[in-house]
Amino acid sequence: MIDAHQHFWRLDRGDYGWLTPALRPLYRDYLPTDLEPALRRTGVHSTILVQAAPTVAETRFLLELAHAHEFVAGVVGWADFEDANVADTIHSLAADEKLVGLRPMIQDIADPGWMLDARLAPAYESMIDHDLVFDALVLPRHLPALRELVGRYPDLVMVLDHGAKPPLKSGDLADWKREIAALARGSPIVCKLSGLVTEAGSAEPGALREATDHLLDCFGTERLMWGSDWPVCELVCSYDTWRATSDALLAPLTDAQRAFIHSATARRIYGI
């Protein structure tokens, strides 16, 4: 089993602008020794480690952790897509075999069409050249632009993080459902079954079932991959609890269908 989305951070590095004391219990160091016991308990063999700070320095820090801990199968890092020398930066980072993708923090960018800016073309083209995956950290308002981006770069492998963060607390999922269906129908993008407990503020299967069922209907089991979003999930529940909740949500599937979500899709997309 592969956890396709988890994080590490060390506060004294100082580049996590979003991580403040108000975000307890997240405001402390989270490192490999903190995660390893949960991996053993839940039967997770390897992980994809995803950036949490918009700096190349943090990406290099994550790559160091990946080389020091065998269970980290790959790193989704960060590069400044607007930088004139971004292609050189990506070339340098991609020299490390543990780098499998890049993720600009689009959810924090005010312009919902930012990803379509022509200035970003060198970044996308360099990612294609180096067989890197584009992780799309977006909100529902970004989905029309993401759909256009997929059309512009059909050779760029793309992953939708956290199902685009459906507004589960409000319960008004109509617009999200429409845009997710259009994206899944019109592109080969795959989606992470992750982050939903944070959006719902609950780990009860009933609070997540409508969104999960819609993602299954739209993407199918071969285009979904399981992720914990640990330690962010700790705002709502433990790693073990999310594993149990997701098991309940996926219980109607066959073993073969669950195998895609738990392992095969991540292996195919990230080249594990």
Topology, element by element:
Blueprint: E1 2-6, H1 32-42, E2 46-50, H2 56-68, E3 72-77, H3 86-94, E4 99-102, H4 121-129, E5 133-136, H5 143-152, E6 158-160, H6 174-186, E7 190-193, H7 196-200, H8 205-219, E8 224-226, H9 239-249, H10 255-270
Parallel strand pairs: 1-2, 2-3, 3-4, 4-5, 5-6, 6-7, 7-8
Supply database-style keywords:
eight-stranded parallel beta sheet; 41% helix; alpha/beta; 272 residues; 10 helices
Question: Short description, anyone?
Answer:
With 272 residues, this protein is α/β, with parallel strands linked by helices. The chain has 10 helices and 8 strands. The longest helix has 16 residues.
Q: Helicity level, as a percent range? A: 40-55%
The unreliable regions are none
| Side-by-side strand order of the widest sheet | 1-2-3-4-5-6-7-8
What Rg do the Cα atoms give?
17 Å
The percent range for strand residues is 5-15%
Main sheet summary: 8 strands, parallel
Q: N-to-C SSE series?
A: EHEHEHEHEHEHEHHEHH
Q: Helix count?
A: 10
Quote the distance from N terminus to C terminus: 12 Å
The outline comes out as globular
Average pLDDT value?
97
Characterize the quaternary organization of these chains: single chain
The class by helix and strand makeup works out as: alpha/beta
DSSP, total strands: 8
